[in-house]
Specification:
globular; 15-stranded mixed sheet
Length: 466
């Protein structure tokens, strides 16, 4: 019997490794960090104590007092001779770099690179995001989380604005080598080079007894999606999930429903209000089928829940940057940690239970009557460009349901459907009366595509010639 159980465990480990695209690494110490109140001080201490290198990969660094404080910390260490490298996402940071946000780091001798900036080639490849949140220090510590750097996460007590609810981890041990390698790959993609030899897991002394997988995903790999599906299928007692922008794919939704119908205690903790206006109503279009299958859904009563976590059977847990939507699963570069440890699993479960005390459960007979709570004006104003992208995604989901009949439509989708209907009707009339509009549109798209292909061909030809 023990031999059979061992064989099953081996198969499970093999399945998880293949799904995640990451091996199980032992000998680590993992510390759970809640909100900016615990994450930011830990990050600051590690940066201040750095002696060799600081590697930062961050989707958003705001040009506010919080962002500038971390920039100055990094600049100070760069002036002390520490190798400081920072890669940021061009879309996430917006115009802040153009206004000199990272200038102190560069002037101090550090290196700063922008990830996947817009270019002629690939034609729309620049739309993919580097959504990772990573700080690696001296090859000895790594911080992975859902937190970016900005005042939203820290809150504004003087204005009665609570901090965003978010989760991160501090890792020490052999797995830090995998975090350093993940950063190095992003740095290379951003055009940088790292002269120091890469550290491997076997070169880092054990710091604890925790086993984990560090999952560094890239577009179209779908590693976190495959892992989430597998864990959902393997969960036997509980599966508790917190997510900021839940727009689950059909396969994942069915996996959750199947687990709940099989008497697994499946719970979702989602935001009641969001910095991206369309996300909450879109998530709510999925509630009915989940509730009918027995999934319990809770909405956070605070300003915003931004965490991306899961805990299954109080034994397996995931923390990181991946949201439960197609953009994160297949479109972005993401970074998550999957921990297989009973102690850490208990900590994650206890944190989830604590969060539920500040949440409202949605039940089947009343959820349709709920309306989004007002979001503070400063939150609504955040990052309007990102809101537009999410809005387009949301409208597309409503339109897809209307065209295919894949699910019942809800009353709050009247607006998007009517707006798009009016727009398409206006376009049709415009093309009918002024066909040149269509001709010009086709010409612009074809010309842009053609120039992009020629640009790619020239780059390949030039590289071969050199």
């Amino acid at each position: 019997m023990p031999r059979n159980l061992g064989h099953i465990r081996t198969l499970a480990d093999q399945a998880l490794s293949r799904a995640a695209g990451a091996p199980l690494i032992g000998g680590n110490r993992v510390k759970l960090l809640r909100d900016a109140a615990e994450n930011y001080p830990a990050w600051a201490r590690a940066i201040i104590d750095a002696r060799q290198s600081i590697h930062v990969e961050m989707y958003i660094i705001h040009r506010d007092e919080v962002g500038r404080r971390f920039v100055e910390l990094l600049a100070t260490r760069a002036r002390a001779g520490v190798k400081v490298r920072l890669v940021y996402d061009w879309f996430g940071c917006g115009f802040a770099p153009l206004f000199g946000l990272f200038k102190p780091i560069i002037q101090a001798g550090g290196e700063v690179r922008v990830f996947n900036r817009p270019s002629l080639a690939p034609i729309v490849g620049w739309a993919r995001r580097n959504h990772r949140k990573l700080i690696a220090v001296d090859g000895r510590l790594a911080y992975i989380s859902g937190l970016c750097i900005g005042r939203e996460w820290q809150g504004q007590p003087d204005r009665n604005i609570a901090p965003w609810r978010d989760t991160g981890v501090e890792i020490a041990g052999p797995a830090v080598a995998e975090a350093e390698e993940a950063f190095a790959e992003s740095w290379r993609l951003a055009g940088g080079t790292i002269d120091e030899p890469a550290v491997t897991p076997d070169q880092i002394a054990p710091a604890g007894q925790t086993n984990l997988r560090l999952i560094a995903t890239s577009p179209y790999a779908g590693n976190v999606l495959k892992l989430d599906l597998l864990v959902t299928a393997m969960a036997r007692r509980t599966l508790w999930i917190t997510d900021a922008y839940f727009i689950g794919h059909g396969l994942y939704l069915e996996a959750l429903r199947s687990a709940a119908r099989d008497k697994v205690d499946v719970r979702l903790l989602l935001p009641q209000g969001s910095d991206i206006g369309w996300t909450v109503p879109l998530s709510r279009t999925l509630y009915r089928s989940l509730l009918e299958a027995g999934v319990r859904i809770f909405e956070w009563n605070g300003t915003m829940v931004h965490a991306k976590t899961a805990v299954a059977d109080r034994m397996w847990a995931r923390v990181g940057s991946s949201n439960l939507n197609i953009t994160s699963w297949l479109g972005n570069w993401e970074l998550d940690v999957a921990v297989e440890d009973a102690t850490f699993g208990e900590q994650m479960a206890a944190q989830f239970e604590q969060d539920l005390k500040q949440s409202t459960e949605i039940v089947l007979h009343q959820w349709r009557r709920r309306t989004p709570q007002p979001v503070h004006a400063t939150v609504r104003a955040q990052r309007s460009a990102r809101r537009v992208v999410r809005t387009v995604t949301g409208v597309g989901r409503s339109l897809g349901a209307a065209v295919t009949g894949s699910r019942p439509l809800d009353d709050f989708e009247i607006g998007p459907l009517a707006a798009v209907g009016v727009f398409l009707s206006a376009v049709a009339l415009g093309v009918f009366w002024v066909p040149e509009v269509l001709a010009w549109s086709v010409a612009i798209v074809a010309g842009w595509t053609g120039v992009g292909f020629l640009y790619e061909a020239f780059n390949l030809w030039w590289a071969r010639r050199r």
